[in-house]
Amino acid sequence: EVQLVESGGGLVQSGGSLRLSCAASGFTFSDSWMSWVRQAPGKGLEWVATIKPDGSETYYVDSVKGRFTISRDNAKNSLDLQMNSLRAEDSAVYYCARGGSTHFGNWGQGTLVTVSS
Amino acid sequence: QSALTQPASVSGSPGQSITISCTGTSSDVGNYNFVSWYQQHPGKAPKLMIYEGSKRPPGVSNRYSGSKSGNTASLTISGLQAEDEADYYCCSYAGSYTWVFGGGTKLTVL
After folding, report:
1. How far apart are the CA of B51 and the nearest CA of chain A, in angstroms?
2. Which pairs with CB-CB distance under 8 Å and at least 24 residues apart come from B25-28?
3. By a Cβ cutoff of 8 Å, what residues of chain A touch chain B?
4. Regions of chain A with pLDDT less than 50
5. Which runs of consecutive H residues, i.e. helices, occur in B1-110?
6. For B31-66, how does the pLDDT look when each residue is reduced to its tens digit (9 = 90+)?
7. What is the pLDDT of residues B17-30, one digit of tens each?
8. Mean pLDDT, all residues of chain B
């Protein structure tokens, strides 16, 4: 069974940093594209970032470029999202998702990030 | 990277069929066959229902079907059931490994 478990969310001040992690199991992580998708409270889904299976290339939505970094450790089956210079509009539930090359096949339960201004 | 356009809400009675539209542009929906649909119940994670426009993952009911015409994709749910009540989001590839979601549609089963 595919499992994706996010951690690292919390309350942070505007301009601060936070690092999210996602522990993956139940599939061959090193063969899988991985992504982060977020959802602001009461709002829709927004794609944030995607990383290739070998970590060689990364892709970001314009609003987070230069501030967020997606990375992975295939030896530990883990995915990270380093978030710097956080803004109020980054407040959201952040989902770890398997996929990003054709669709997002599996999702974690999400971790809440709240940025206070 | 503008969001795809979905109706805010749709409704139907049990047993009926409903269709949710998802309108994009020639840069996303109209240019690629990578439209997917996600179901989200309140407080839960999204679940993949349709991928590559019309394919169903294992375990998803065949009451769910997807299609595309030009810049508009559609999700049809036939034989509506109470458990289908949820938010539905479309998503399209937008080139260079970027993705755009729709604003979401709240489905109410009357």
Report:
1. 6
2. B25/B71, B26/B71, B27/B94, B27/B95, B28/B4, B28/B92, B28/B93, B28/B94, B28/B95, B28/B100
3. 35, 37, 44-47, 50, 57, 59, 61-62, 95, 100-110
4. none
5. none
6. 999 999 999 999 999 999 999 999 999 999 999 999
7. 999 999 999 999 99
8. 97
